[in-house]
Amino acid sequence: MVLRAVFFDVDGTMAETEREGHRVAYNAAFKELGYPVSWDVDLYGELLAVMGGKERIRHYWAEHPELKSLDELDVERIHDVKARHFSDLVEKGSIGLRIGVRRLLDELASREVPVSIASTITFEGLDALLRKNLGDNWQDRFQFLGIGDVVPVKKPDPAIYRWLLGQHQVDPLSVVTIEDTRAGLLASVGAGIATLITPSDYSKDQDFSEAACVASSLGDPGQLARWRLASGAEGSGIIDVGFLEKLVSVR
Questions:
Q1: Which one of 44, 52, 192, 240 is at 20 to 30 Å from 73 when CA atoms are compared?
Q2: pLDDT tens-digit profile of 178-212?
């Protein structure tokens, strides 16, 4: 099977955005808007089980009835202010791409393998992150942006990956998804796609038994990734286009 497309998650996969990015931005938004709420590192890790920023806000408020109730406009306002603070953090250079992401994107472009994104991140957050790390023309690298609320249900439901498969008009057996969480893994395999997991700070202890491969990163020269295939084979090196082609060829 020929590699026809690669789908990337963003938060935790392309960049370690959660702990010192989105979490900090949420807390700044709560403070700016006058909500007596602060999400510490451990609590935010628990909240990541709820996929989607607005969903996470609603969930937390539902668990804390002592807080003033929120309507949908309040949720949107918090989320919008949080997005602004996140963009500010990115602009300050606080959040870079993970090891190997830029290199692999460059290789995929040179081999003309289509790449798309599957994430709940807003366009504003994605634009800030990738403009800072890939340049003003970052959108030229991606065929489709499956972001925000483009589908009505979030991971682990496979809707976002089925949507991307439909946009690309490709067989799921010819695609590789790169994810960092179990929810993302379940969404991807639920759509029939081989999944490469690069665990993030928050997801490193999750169950990835359905993954085609689990790797410490995508690797770079001098910063090799450690990987383990579903077959049990282990090794180290760089995750390149050839490596991804092998993941689809063994299916």
A1: 44
A2: 999 999 999 999 999 999 999 999 999 999 999 99
